[in-house]
Amino acid sequence: MDRESINQTIEALRNNDKFLITAHVNPEGDSIGSQIAVYYLLKSLNKEVYIVNHDRVPDNLKFLAGAEVILNEIPEDFVPKTIVILDCPVKERAGSVSKNILDCETIINIDHHVSNEFFGDVNWVESGVSSVGEMVFYLFKEMKISFNKEVIEAIYTAIVTDTGMFNYNNTSNETHKVTGELISAGVNPKEMHGKIFENKSISDIRLLGKALSGITLEADGRIAFMVLTRKMYEEEGVEEISTDEFINFPRSLKGVEIAAFLKENSVPEKINVSFRSKGKVDVNILASKFGGGGHQQASGCILNCVLDEAREKILEESIKVLEL
Ligand SMILES: [Mn+2]
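That is the input. Now the predicted structure with manganese (II) ion docked in place:
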């Protein structure tokens, strides 16, 4: 753990005020969970603080206490001076909120992406740590701030989602120790699992079914493609759902080394792409070829073209990465 950066972060949190907390577009468990935890941390220091994200909170995370304070626009009468950016490797990934970043006097960048660009005044980046939620847990410990129920559940959510339920290789001894402490403090894992993962609508499952039946294999079964088109959404009569878990299915296929999940955005000629690997192939390299990034085993990017063209480009680069 980078001691110097933790100390700088703590100092910056204590000595500044008028905080804006943000995270990457399409926020998931780690972004939302760590935002809520930092929100309560700053509240306990009597700071003025708002959480503002480009996108809405996904339905399966709305149960978290604190999710209701997350806004999509900065309140009119609030001028932020300090921004805390969580789980966001490049500042542009904060979407519409990124324009406010440069106006702030102090940028505090807390992240665990290997591709982080150190764009902050303070940069605390730990690529070996499971989640930003786990990092925020250490902040509470270091600052000797007590955990309330909202915080422990938010941090638990961050960890359990970003480790794929403790399945990914970012899961460490330390991760389990932290989780153990959270359980001791009152988190109920079974209850949390039910709320996060077993709260789906019939449309969620039917859309998954459509995506599953269209999985294709390339490069002798080493690359799996899964797509979700706007037409599939329209057939189900839904606007947007959480599809975070979809990619686990193509990834779980025997022999697959790269799983790619291509999702048509509601904006035409824009494809949201997620990559997963089983560890051998570095999909952070793959995503970075398209201006994205992430982790070795999990990454993403956006392509500005139609679906077929995106598929072609991704296949071409994936084959190159397999040959590395
Ligand atoms: Mn994360």
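The longest helix spans residues 29-44.
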